[in-house]
Amino acid sequence: MTEYPDSVCVDASLVLKLLLPEPGSDSAATLWSRWEQEGIVKFAPAHFLYETC
Questions:
Q1: Residue 2 domain-assigned (yes or no)
Q2: Range list of H helices, 1-53
């Protein structure tokens, strides 16, 4: 398995919490902001679009 330091693979549920008002949206926004401040690179798996459509 390849490791990518300073990066995270985002889950569809996290991104949907950022876009839609639902329980956990505030926590998701806080986490995303922290990643932004720390310069964390965010990426999604190839099947990401299928999970969100």
A1: no
A2: 12-19, 25-38, 48-52
